[in-house]
Predict the 3D structure of the following.
Amino acid sequence: MPDVLIDRARILARIAELSTEIRRDVPGDVHFVAVLKGAFVFLADLMRAIEGPVSCDFMVVTSYGAVQQSSGDIVIRKDLEESLQDREVVIVEDIVDSGRTLARLQQILRSRQPRSLRTVCLLDKRSRREVAVAIDYVGFVIPDRFVVGYGLDLDGRYRNLPDISILDE
Ligand code: IMP
Ligand code: MG
């Protein structure tokens, strides 16, 4: 079994803080855009933690490159169902590594003219950043280890683990 890095209780405590911060910045309708599949567990807890009006939509993007490394060229496999025009949008990401996927996604979504565009990311592997990308809310900065659980996978496995764990190959 993988070693636990951040257990579920700590994740939920941090999500409570993140939701308070987001609500302070956006008092009205918050429109979450979650990036599938990894972010679906995080979104489910974040949406139940935040008070007031929220909505959500989903996107599936894949990046070209090796399994554990992305090139930043992303393909939209499933697009959003709703317009972002004039909405207060918060991108919900599981993990930012090189930053390439998120940087490109922000560029694409900004072109759809939301009133505001923010990003919440549960995990930040900051030491691996290759492109500068703005993240408004970060759950945890983590070391350069491959993590799974709480929605994060390796080849589709381990998403169901309740904690975030380090996978040592
Ligand atoms: P980036 O474009 O390099 O920032 O890659 C971000 C994407 O890589 C994430 O959305 C994940 O799909 C994947 N990824 C990066 N590190 C990990 C990890 O430790 N565990 C699981 N997926 C990861
Ligand atoms: Mg992924």
